[in-house]
Amino acid sequence: MVDPLSFFIRGNLLMALVMIYFFCLDFGGYSMSKYLGIDLGTANVLIDVKGEGIVLNEPSVVAINTKNDDVVAVGQDAYQMVGRTPANIKAVRPLKDGVIADFNITEKMLQYFIDKLNVRSRFSKPTIMICAPTNVTPVEQKSIIEAAEQAGGGKVYLQFEPKVAAVGAGLDIFKPQGNMVIDIGGGTSDIAVLSMGDVVTSRSLRFAGDKMTSAIQAYVKSNHSLIIGERTAEQIKIEIGSALEADDKVTFSASGIDIVTGLPKEITVNEKEIEDALHDGVLQIVDAAKGVLEQTPPELSADIIDRGIMLTGGGSLLKNLDKLLAEQLEVPVLMTESPLDSVALGTGILLENIEKHKKY
């Protein structure tokens, strides 16, 4: 006959051992926690998981039910709703010009993406590296870190986008030599000279991919009396956008609302028109890059002449932008192999060495 007390003790002991086993497996003294690199972009959110690479790339869009503030969709599903929602559903971008415009919605968006990756457990939270423009204020830095923490992050590191983009583009910024990067994202264009792992001089301006799209919308409205949506303008930018040597024989058919009649209408725009639409904004990037070069110490300037300027970010894909920058700056301009992924890839590289280089 089994002694009830002994059975009870053995049963609890077994349960305790099982719990300890899963605790060690799951927690591992915190060493088993995931490391996430997040490119919190105005246009897209990319997440790199240490050891796995980029595992998520979705638009920074959240669809909200305005009647009760419930989240209807996030990411790609929400992006499909832009310009196509009824009055009670609003598709919003919670980030503007590279910083958080709506903290609560940004937190919900990050939480959704982190939960989607299933990287949290009962005993550990992921370590996160997240990026920000170089001109971000201390208050904005704090809000970005808090958003990542509230979304489920443990330890959160904040890094500047051009530094991380340079690492993701394959530049060794930790040597005593000058490296220059121009990172053109959705909300900001960040230009920086780096040496020995830090920013020597930089500029951040709020003309980038989104403002290019807005400029195209404004041009079409002014010159063709047609109101086109954000997605149509973005498609024009991708298909026939150009910074230099545009061909007026390359065209795009765009549909919208005629300002005069209020009726649907289709017009044709050409590459030369879009170059004109983007001209003033692109010159802002050129002028900012000149300003950074003027503030760069001579020895580092010599390195940049030898090594060239690295162009990263989705906005850098604008046709012939590299040629225009090279002509205006009189310095070689190189395009990284994966401009859209540079920041996310850079976070992954830095996270791989996070224990070795605590300064990250």
End-to-end separation in angstroms reads 63 Å
Shape: flat
Q: Could you give the order of the helices and strands?
A: HEEEEEHEEEHEHEHEEEHEHEEHHEHEH
How many distinct domains?
3
What is the CATH T-level topology of the largest domain?
Answer: Nucleotidyltransferase, domain 5
**Structural class designation:** alpha+beta
Oligomer: single chain
Q: Provide the CATH architecture of the largest domain.
A: 2-Layer Sandwich
CATH class bucket of the largest domain? Alpha Beta
Q: CATH superfamily membership of the largest domain, which one?
A: ATPase, nucleotide binding domain
Low-confidence region ranges: 16-31
Radius of gyration: 24 Å
- SS summary, helix count: 11
Binding site for ATP: 42-44, 186-188, 234-237, 314-317
Subcellular location: Cytoplasm
GO molecular function: ATP binding
Transmembrane segments: 6-25
Provide an overview of this structure:
The structure is a single chain. The chain is of the alpha+beta class and 360 residues long. It has three domains: 33-163 and 343-352, 2-Layer Sandwich (Nucleotidyltransferase, domain 5), CATH 3.30.420.40; 170-207 and 279-342, ATPase, nucleotide binding domain (Nucleotidyltransferase, domain 5, 2-Layer Sandwich); 214-275, Actin, Chain A, domain 4 (Alpha-Beta Complex), CATH 3.90.640. It has helices at 4-27, 76-79, 103-117, 138-150, 161-168, 209-224, 230-240, 271-294, 298-307, 321-329, 342-352; strands at 35-40, 44-49, 53-59, 62-65, 70-74, 89-92, 95-96, 99-100, 127-132, 156-160, 179-184, 189-195, 198-205, 226-227, 251-258, 264-270, 309-312, 333-335. The strands form five sheets. It has a five-stranded mixed β-sheet with strand order 3-2-1-9-10, sandwiched between helices. Strands 13-12-11-17-18 form a five-stranded mixed β-sheet. A three-stranded antiparallel β-sheet has the order 5-4-6. The radius of gyration is 24 Å and the shape is flat.
